[in-house]
Specification:
By secondary structure, the chain is an all-alpha fold. The chain has helices spanning about 5-20, 25-35, 45-55, 60-65, 80-95, 100-115, 120-135, 135-140. Helices cover about 75% and strands about 0% of the residues.
Length: about 140
């Protein structure tokens, strides 16, 4: 876990999870994470983007997820929901992050924070979101 973005995503999953459960103000959650979790300068900008970007784009994110989930997004396990929302945010709004990186990071976060088999669920959903929203990138990779 050496990459600053990986560390930022790990903290963002925990912060988004907290926001989902408590509804606390994002600035308060951000302050708490900076103080208590010792986010470094390398992680802070991406953490902030995810923490504030996911709620800001929640309707688009949840709409993209809802096409592929087996139940309403609000009924997903809160850990899985946080991971899926972050991954979908990246797939929709961060085309500079390769879709395979987004999917792999989601899988790893699910292995660290989720239930025993949740990484399989995360993989399946993020892969389908990527195929819908990153079609050019995916088709370019499949050409010889």
């Amino acid at each position: 876990m050496s990459n600053a973005r990986t560390r930022a995503r790990r903290s963002a999953v925990q912060a988004i999870y907290q926001w989902q459960l408590t509804g606390f103000d994002l600035s308060e959650i951000e302050r708490q994470f900076v103080e208590e979790h010792g986010l470094g300068k390398g992680e802070l900008p991406y953490f902030n983007e995810l923490l504030h970007g996911v709620p800001k784009q929640l309707d688009r994110i949840d709409g993209a997820l809802a096409e592929f989930t087996d139940r309403p997004v609000a009924q997903l396990d809160p850990v899985e929901r946080a991971i899926l929302r972050i991954g979908t945010y990246e797939l929709l709004f961060r085309p500079d992050v390769p879709y395979r990186v987004v999917v792999n990071e989601g899988i790893n976060l699910a292995k660290d924070f989720g239930a025993t088999q949740s990484h399989r669920y995360i993989n399946g959903i993020l892969d389908r979101v990527a195929r819908r929203h990153r079609t050019t990138e995916i088709s370019d990779r499949s050409r010889p």
